[in-house]
Design brief:
Belongs to the thioesterase PaaI family. The chain contains 4 helices and 6 strands. It is of the alpha+beta class and 154 residues long. Strands 1-2-4-5-6-3 form a 6-stranded antiparallel β-sheet, covered by helices on one side. The radius of gyration is 18 Å and the shape is globular.
Length: 154
Amino acid sequence: MDLEKVKRFLEKEDDGKNRSAIEEMPLRFFERFVMQGIRVDLIEPGRLVCSMKVPPRLLNAGNFLHGGATATLVDLVGSAVIYTVGAPFTGVSVEINVSYLDAAYADEEIEIDARVLRVGKAVGVVSVEFRKKETGKIIAQGRHTKYLAVSSKM
């Protein structure tokens, strides 16, 4: 095993030109990068259905939707659905898990269906399912647990 090769892969060393461009990106750039192009198709208490065409910027080396982008969508859309039940804030992630069942390719229309499973005083749990819009075939299923900060009694 070539440990230096692994190190170079992770560190992505460059000549410094890209570093300044990356550092100048706006705050919360990553969320906008993943979410751009998403459309809300249905919103009701406890449920949020969105759709989007898979953009080339979110593809992995195999040319299908990157698992990290899918997990980010579980996080962001899963957090948004918590607002639909009247929560004043969405808290912080405690756990996110994603089961990847199929692939979605560039320009393929997908549907993201987020549902509140439970929102209590301290914890919220949601499920997020990804489907191919044309066939209804499941691409991924996620579950997101969030700690809903309890307001201080001071």
